Amino acid sequence: MTTNAQVQAANSPEIVTFGETMALLMPSSGKGLEYSAELHSLFGGAESNLAIGISRLGGKVGWFGRLGKDPLGRMIFKKLRGEGIDVSRAELTGEAPTGLMMREVLMGKTSVYYYRKNSAASQTSVKHLDEAYIAGAKILHVTGITPALSESCKEAVFEAVRMARKHGVKVSFDPNLRLKLWSIEEARPVLLELAQLSDIFLPGLDELKLLYQTEDWDVIVGKLRELSAISIVKGGDNETYVVTPDTITAVPYFKAEQVVDTVGAGDGFCAGFLVGVTKGYDYAEAVRIGNLVGSLIVQTEGDWEGAPTWEQVDAVLHDIKHIER
């Protein structure tokens, strides 16, 4: 960690994010894990999903985190680099293994099983932060998954946010509430404090109901307006909401032609939204881009494999017809 009072900002990407990325094993053809002789080797993590989505849309993005110096960690590192993501601050360590998750979809319900305790990512701490790298970005994006992994991870997230705010870097925060990692009672004060420290708050409506302990939309809006952040509320019945101190703007969803795998939709939305922001779109139009990216991702199996390019997004936004041959 850089400790000098004056930090010379690095030549960083526009958007920087960090967190846990795990290897992912999935059976094919809708079989259960215990009955599958073959498994697909993939990977996923909220922050790296987002980074891939941003890069495919033409955004400049960096991801850093700790991976095991093992075959799974090397696979993840190489694929992220191959997607055009700056991984110059990522670390392959021999101190701990890469985390693993396994996922199955049975009768339309997704179940995820995690093997992440004492992983390399869970041992991330303040000493793994590069202040100059954060200072050189326009946006730092963090999620509520990282502080749930360990006390040192929580400290790293708050310190990264402090660094960003110190250098005028906007903080984007997706709570990504994971009740398999911690209870709502443990999560609530941490996530609400991060929301208070953020410039862009990206919660889901169901998350807000748990965090604010109410089903009342008007009460939720009142709580959001107490924040200094612009709040982008995902998960409405048919729309996403932009909540400011004075206005609420509803932005309709794009209809997905088919829903194959819903995992990664929220990360895709955030990627599309943040790219829209960095391109200079207003918040409502950036949300429209995010809605479209989310709808495209759910039509492909995997956490990020269906992330579109900017050309594909632009074709839908402007109704450009595909010429097959």
From TrEMBL:
Would you tell me the protein name for this molecule? Sugar kinase
- The organism sits in which domain of life? Bacteria
Record keywords: Transferase included? Answer: yes
> Which segments constitute the Carbohydrate kinase PfkB domain?
14-309
Classification via InterPro entries: Carb_kinase_PfkB-like, Carboh/pur_kinase_PfkB_CS, PfkB_dom, Ribokinase-like
TM spans (from-to): none
Q: Which UniProt keywords apply?
A: Kinase, Transferase
The family this protein is said to belong to = Belongs to the carbohydrate kinase PfkB family.
Organism name: Paenibacillus alba
- Pfam families cross-referenced by the UniProt entry: PfkB
- From the UniProt record, which GO molecular function terms apply? kinase activity
